[in-house]
Amino acid sequence: MLLQFSSAQGPEECCIAVEKTLNYFLTVTEQRQVDVIILEQEPSR
Q1: Which of 14, 24, 26, 31 has a beta carbon 3.0–4.6 Å from 7's, enabling a disulfide?
Q2: φ and ψ of 37, to 5 deg
């Protein structure tokens, strides 16, 4: 499965929302022992 979390060209608030969503996703997948590989990650602008 391939998932993409993106704030596109949104304001900094969108980047914060993506960061919180990704952190929650990683927490839940770790609890459920699901392997996750992050293929690409870019800092906010």
Answers
A1: 14
A2: -120, 120
